[in-house]
Design a protein that fits this description.
The complex is a heterodimer of chains A (about 300) and B (about 800).
Chain A (H helix, E strand, L loop, with lengths): L1 H7 L3 E7 L7 E5 L5 E7 L5 E9 L5 E3 L2 E11 L6 E12 L2 E3 L3 E7 L9 E2 L3 E11 L7 E9 L12 E7 L3 E7 L3 E3 L3 E11 L3 E14 L6 E14 L7 E7 L9 E4 L3 E13 L4 E11 L6
Parallel strand pairs in A: 3-12, 15-22
Antiparallel strand pairs in A: 1-4, 2-3, 4-9, 5-8, 6-7, 6-11, 10-11, 11-12, 13-14, 14-16, 16-19, 17-18, 17-21, 20-21, 21-22
Chain B lengths: L2 H30 L3 H13 L8 H27 L4 H7 L6 H18 L4 H11 L6 H15 L17 H22 L8 H24 L5 H18 L3 H14 L2 H6 L1 H7 L9 H18 L4 H6 L2 H15 L5 H18 L4 H15 L8 H18 L2 H6 L3 H5 L4 H18 L6 H10 L1 H4 L12 H17 L5 H15 L7 H22 L5 H22 L5 H17 L3 H17 L4 H17 L5 H16 L4 H11 L14 H26 L6 H16 L6 H16 L7 H20 L1 H8 L4
Helix pairs in contact in B: 1-2, 1-3, 2-3, 2-5, 3-5, 4-5, 5-6, 5-7, 6-8, 7-8, 7-9, 8-9, 8-10, 9-11, 11-14, 13-16, 14-17, 16-17, 17-18, 17-19, 19-22, 22-25, 23-26, 25-27, 26-27, 26-28, 27-28, 27-29, 28-29, 29-30, 29-31, 31-32, 31-33, 32-33, 33-34, 33-35, 34-35, 35-36, 35-37, 37-38
Classes of the chains: A mainly beta (about 300), B mainly alpha (about 800).
Membrane topology (chain A): Peripheral membrane protein
Main location (chain A): cytoplasm
InterPro entries (chain A): Arrestin-like_C, Vps26-related
Chain lengths: ~300, ~800
């Protein structure tokens, strides 16, 4: 593969190594082509530093109008393909115009970079961070190399975290009261709760708790909303009677969740909902959806 | 269910089993390669087969058992996994990721079991978590099986006293709490089954429910196995909690079954100490619950417990078991107005059994029970219900069996009242039981009141209660039963003559109402029993003043006379005659001449008026002669009258040989060895001569009618009489007359037209031998005989 690419790739190989590459945590990232690669993980305010080496292919010299590295934070809307909105753009010049005859290494550093948004791969939108190295050349076209990295930002546990408690129902048919122990959950959290049946006049077959992700992109008339069901967790099998209380314990760790994103750069939002669904014997669905806030808690391990 | 449905069900079961097998196969491979993720995946898929709603409990159980076996292997794997360093806590979380609840909970229980064993967390916390999480299954069938699985895997891991899972934080209280909660939830599910599905399938549902009941009852069994439950705890926590659930579920099947379970699984002494609580629950049960069965079982258990050892009896007294049971039964009967009579009687019958075991000395309790039973039955008349009848018989038989003494039963004032409610046939049967008991135990009934009570009880045997019953009347049985009665009459005895007389009067009063069929059976034993008394009095005569004692025999003879007279209605003249003669003889021994004479008169009247059959006449004459011969109190005049009559009767018999025999027998009436007043040789000779004449006549008649002379047997017999009186020294009997008689016989024997008669030959031979023998003896007798030539 590399060989073939090499054939089209003019002149030089560019490689990037991060300063703390060995110790830094690597996380998987899904690329456009569907492949998953391991990339380094950063959070906001970190220094992103390392070395970039440019190595001309076998003895050829590379003539250039300068070499630069950019740190870009981009939001990409799929329905608006090709349009990137750079919400962050930092540049470091690595070299003045000249010629390279042999492998040349440039240290670089972006210190305390503000990266307010997390990397996100949604249905209609993608937010990504990249390092872009450009070897500018005049007529021959620039040589560009990208290095993805992932940003995750951690929040402290919220000081106020009320439970969600609500009584809902259909008159003379079904009255339930449900309770989720919190309104804000971290990604590895457990949802603990209970459902009380106050009145049951329908023949319930089962009850599920769903985790739904609502991703809305664009704004105004162009808003696109995409809802995915990430988890379908059966809570109850069979028909309860009045007075029953059914426990809820849902571990969130198995699911690929992200924190809740509200109005990221005015481009998109990602929200999470718990959807309690009761299905009766005629397969009619009764449901109640509640938003929960997801956040990322610093992992201790 | 249609046959088609059954077929379908088979198909569903087969496919379920196939699903389990297939996934179990993959699971095993994952287990072998230590692939936890796959193992969980396939085990969850396997358990998904249990999510089916298409199987009946029976088939579902089959499916469940297959999955159960597989889960055992999975549990082993989990155990090894934790040994390899996999955190059990993580494992406990991991299995909860499964999306479907049923597989998830089965896995959770399985891991939970390993978790408890690991002791990384207090057993009580894990148990509590498991039993709580299982609430997610609200489907009755699936829930019952899941919880039964939980119960199964946890029962050896309860923090019981002495168990390795007991610790500071884990006490037996937690174990109890866990089992109780699981029990409560299972019962709720079980009860709920009743109310789901179409109404027309009620029967089927009830059948299915009864198939599942042991799953629920198992919990109570587990509870009973917890060593740490002491009486205090049972009293304060366990029983009230169980009963609360039982009462509140308001379900007939569950209540009946669970009450029975409680009674069966927990120890007797606990029942005894918590009687009040347990009994208190009974009236609160649904009216359709068979409480009588429940109570009956309870009392049966307590009875057995009491029977086991007398050491425990004080406990019964201490808790006033009887009073409590009695009042509980009262309440139950009150609460369930439409309880059938059979039920009521069953209850009382069980209580009675209990009382007899526990308070054998408290006859008043027994009477109290019978009284309560009577009150309940009052106004119902005779019972038609065969079950109720059977129960009453049981109720009445119990005291008899226990006390082996009819005395006791006779002391129970309510006993006859209960019996009144039996129909005639059963009442008779019951009376029979009574009588048999007396006979078997050889009980002696010794007071008038008791006899009165007894006869009141067995009136079914003594007289016909209902005229219409004669049709289905078995002669054999009747005879059997009347024989028993007569045996019973024989057994009545009291040493005090006055009392005995009263008894006789009472019996008489009862038996005279018996009707012609019974009298021949009942009269003779009474007569003989009375005569026994008479004889006893005679023996006492020596030491007692005459006037006092002789009053009684007279009275007795009066009564006897009346009794025998009653026989005339039957009529059984032969029997009556015999009895008269017996009485006469007894009167003779009591020196009551007029009485004896009266009896003889009665006998003669009977002979003249009633006995017309010639064979019967012969027998009667023999009896009369025999008896009369022994009478010694008659004055000359009376005796003459009687003997004269007797000889007269003898001569008037139909057949000559009979005449002859009777007449020569009469000779004895005139010569009684030890009675000097009766030694009338003249008349003896007269009788014998007359006998000879009749014998002659008989032979001539035989000659005339058959052409052959009859047997000489009569002559030989007369010869024997001659010899007898000769030996006794009757002077009128001369050697010559004997000699001529012998000659006559020898001639007859040699005559040509004599019919061969071996009996006659034998008798003659032995007679001659006797004469020879006497001669050989020598002495005075020998001398006497010497003159007879033969």
């Amino acid at each position: 593969m590399n060989y073939i690419i090499g054939a089209f790739k003019p002149a030089c190989n560019i490689s990037i190594t991060f300063g703390d590459g060995k110790s830094r945590k690597q996380v998987p990232l899904k690329k456009e082509n569907g492949q998953t690669v391991m990339v380094p993980l950063f959070q906001s305010q970190e220094n992103i530093a390392g070395k970039i080496s440019v190595e001309p292919v076998s003895g050829k010299k590379v003539e250039h109008n300068g070499i630069k590295v950019e740190l870009l934070g981009q939001i990409e809307m799929y329905f608006d393909r090709g349009n990137f909105y750079d919400f962050t753009s930092l540049v470091r010049e690595l070299d003045v115009p000249g010629e390279i005859y042999e492998r040349k290494t440039y240290p670089f550093e972006f210190s305390t970079v503000e990266m307010p948004y997390e990397t996100y791969n949604g249905v209609n939108v993608r937010l990504r961070y990249i390092l872009k190295i450009t070897v500018s050349r005049g007529y021959a076209g620039s040589i560009v190399e990208y290095q993805d990295f992932v940003v995750r930002n951690y929040s402290p546990p919220p000081s106020i975290n009320n439970s969600i408690k609500m009584e809902v129902g259909i008159e003379d048919c079904l009255h339930i009261e449900f309770e989720y122990n919190k309104s804000k959950y971290h990604l590895k959290d457990v949802i603990i709760g209970k459902i009380y049946f106050l009145l049951v006049r329908i023949k319930i077959k089962n009850m599920d708790l769903e985790i739904r992700r609502r991703e809305s992109t664009g704004s105004g008339a162009n808003t696109h909303v995409e809802t995915e069901t990430l988890a379908k967790f059966e809570l109850m099998d069979g028909a309860p009677v009045r007075g029953e209380s059914i426990p809820i314990r849902l571990f969130l760790s198995p699911y690929e969740l992200t924190p809740t994103y509200r109005n990221i750069n005015n481009k998109f939002s990602v929200k999470y909902y718990l959807n309690l669904v009761l299905v009766d014997e005629e397969d009619r669905r009764y449901f109640k959806q509640q938003e929960i806030t997801m956040f990322r808690l610093e992992e201790t391990s | 269910m249609t046959p088609n449905g059954v077929e379908d069900e088979e198909k569903f079961l087969a496919s379920g089993i196939a699903g389990i097998q297939q996934n179990a196969f993959h699971m095993h491979r994952a287990l072998d390669s230590n692939n936890l993720k796959d193992a969980l995946k396939y085990s969850a898929q396997m358990l998904s087969e249990l999510r089916t709603s298409r199987l009946s409990p029976h088939k579902y159980y089959e499916l469940y058992m297959r999955a159960f076996d597989e889960l055992r292997k999975l549990e082993m794997f989990f155990k090894e996994e934790t040994k390899r360093g996999c955190s059990i806590v993580e494992l406990y979380e991991l299995v909860q990721h499964a999306g479907n609840i049923l597989p998830r909970l089965y896995l959770l229980c399985t891991v939970g079991s390993v978790y408890i064993k690991s002791k990384e967390a207090p057993a009580k916390d894990i148990l509590k978590d498991l039993v709580e999480m299982c609430r997610g299954i609200q489907h009755p069938l699936r829930g019952l099986f899941l919880r039964s699985y939980l119960s199964q895997v946890s029962k050896d891991k309860l923090p019981d006293i002495g168990s390795e899972y007991e610790g500071d934080a884990d006490t037996v209280v937690d174990a109890v709490e866990f089992v109780l909660q699981n029990f409560t939830e299972m019962n709720k599910l079980w009860v709920r089954m009743q109310h789901q599905g179409p109404a027309q399938e009620k029967k089927k549902r009830e059948k299915e429910r009864s198939e599942l009941r042991d799953l629920v009852g198992k919990n109570l069994h587990v509870l009973s196995q917890i060593e740490g439950i002491d009486l205090e705890m049972y009293k304060e926590t366990v029983l009230p909690r169980i009963l609360e659930q039982v009462v509140n579920c308001k379900d007939e099947i569950a209540q009946g079954y669970l009450m029975d379970c409680i009674i069966q699984v927990f120890p007797d002494e606990y029942h005894l100490q918590t009687l009040e609580t347990l009994l208190g629950a009974c009236p609160q049960l649904q009216p359709s619950v068979d409480i009588k069965m429940v109570l009956a079982r309870l009392m049966e258990r307590l009875s057995n417990y009491a029977a086991l050892s007398t050491d425990v009896l004080p406990e019964f007294f201490q808790v006033e078991a009887f009073a409590k049971l009695n009042s509980a039964i009262g309440k139950v009967i009150e609460a369930q107005e439409d309880m059938p009579t059979a039920g009521v009687v069953t209850l009382y019958s069980s209580l009675l059994t209990f009382t007899l075991h526990v308070h054998p000395d408290r006859l008043d309790y027994v009477d109290q029970i019978l009284g309560a039973c009577v009150r309940k039955l009052s106004g119902k008349g005779k019972l038609k219900d065969s079950i109720a009848t059977k129960q009453i018989v049981a109720l009445l038989s119990a005291p008899l069996e226990k006390y082996k003494d009819i005395d006791t039963a006779l002391k129970l004032s309510n006993y006859p009242h209960v019996m009144e409610h039996l129909d005639d046939t059963t009442s008779k049967e019951m009376a029979n039981v009574l009588v048999q008991t007396i006979l078997k135990n050889k009980t002696c009934i010794s007071t008038d009141e008791k006899v009165e009570a007894l006869f009141e009880l067995m009136k079914g045997l003594i007289r016909d209660l209902d005229e219409n019953l004669h049709d289905e009347f078995d002669a054999e049985d009747f005879k059997e039963e009347q024989n028993s009665v007569s045996r019973l009459i024989q057994m009545l005895h009291n040493d005090d003559p006055e009392e005995m007389l009263k008894i006789i009067c009472t019996v008489k009063k009862h038996i005279v109402t018996g009707g012609p069929k019974r009298l021949p059976f009942t009269v003779p034993p009474l007569i003989f029993n009375s005569l026994k008394l008479v004889r006893r009095l005679q023996n006492q005569d020596e030491n007692a003043p005459e006037e006092e004692t002789s009053a009684i025999p007279k009275k007795i003879f009066q009564i006897l006379n009346q009794i025998i007279e009653a026989l005339s209605s039957v009529p059984v003249p032969e029997l009556a005659l015999r009895l008269y003669l017996e009485c006469a003889e007894a009167a003779n021994d009591s020196d009551l001449e007029p009485v004896a004479y009266e009896f003889f008169t009665q006998a003669y009247i009977l002979y003249e008026e009633e006995i017309s059959d010639s064979k019967a006449q012969v027998t009667a004459i023999q009896l009369i002669i025999g008896t009369l011969q022994r009478m010694h109190i008659f004055g000359v005049e009376n005796r003459d009258t009687l003997t004269h009559k007797a000889t007269g009767y003898s001569a008037k018999l139909l057949k000559k040989p009979d005449q002859c025999k009777a007449v020569y027998s009469c000779s004895h009436l005139f010569w009684v060895d030890d009675q000097d007043s009766i030694k009338d040789g003249e008349r003896v000779l007269l009788c014998l001569k007359r006998a000879l004449r009749i014998a002659n006549a008989a032979q001539q008649m035989s000659n005339a009618t058959r052409g052959s002379s009859g047997s000489v047997l009569l002559f030989i017999e007369i010869l024997n009489k001659y010899l007898y009186f000769y030996e006794k020294g009757v002077t009128q009997i001369t050697v010559a007359s004997i000699q001529s008689l012998i000659e006559l016989i020898t001639t007859e024997m040699q005559s040509e037209n004599k019919t061969a008669d071996p009996a006659a030959d034998a008798l003659l031979a032995s007679t001659l031998r006797y004469i020879q023998f006497q001669k050989d003896k020598g002495g005075a007798v020998g001398e006497k005989y010497e003159s007879i030539k033969s």
